[in-house]
Specification:
single chain, 171 residues, mainly beta, five-stranded antiparallel β-sheet
């Protein structure tokens, strides 16, 4: 059977389901062959276990090692964090790190803040794009938090979530 590909008619004679992965040569489709903007991988770090902190210094909550598929990729990153406190004014800041260097933040240590003294459950999410990768060279991503004061904040209290999602996009 002859298959004809035309600009006006498209592909003729190809039936739905007739082309499978076995029809492609090994490594026929690689990250290097995909156009800029193609999604190469999506990974995430997600937690709901409660972590209590009364430190006014930054501390680690979630880490994830990511091995880029492409060189020169961009990373579309969304990070999210919720906290709970009560009986005092309180708040926190959320920060993303890449190989130990801060690459994004929610603002400062009181960017998520309330001055009401009732029981507060509050959080936020933040998104940004980061560049710089070498295929096959692992990168460590980390979510950190910092309390507004030395009053206790319960991160991921009552099953609230925290973490980040990273989408590697071909550069």
């Amino acid at each position: 059977m002859t298959t004809t590909i035309t600009g006006a008619g498209g592909v003729s004679q190809v039936q739905d389901g007739s082309i499978g992965t076995a029809d492609f040569a090994a490594n026929a489709i690689t990250a290097a062959k995909l156009p800029a903007g193609s999604v190469l991988q999506v990974v995430n770090s997600y937690s709901t276990n409660q972590v209590n902190s009364s430190s006014a210094s930054r501390f680690s909550l979630n880490t994830l090692s990511v091995t880029p598929i492409g060189t020169g990729s961009k990373f579309a990153i969304t990070f999210f964090l919720q906290g709970q406190w009560g009986g005092y004014n309180g708040g926190f800041g959320a920060y993303m790190y890449k190989d130990g260097t801060e690459i994004a933040k929610s603002g400062n240590e009181h960017s998520v803040y309330t001055d009401t003294v009732v029981n507060n459950y509050i959080g936020g999410s933040w998104s940004f794009v980061n560049t710089g990768s070498t295929a096959g060279t692992a990168i460590s991503f980390e979510l950190r938090a910092q309390n507004h004061s030395t009053n206790t904040v319960a991160y991921s209290a009552s099953g609230q979530s925290r973490g980040f999602v990273i989408m590697e996009v071909a550069g």
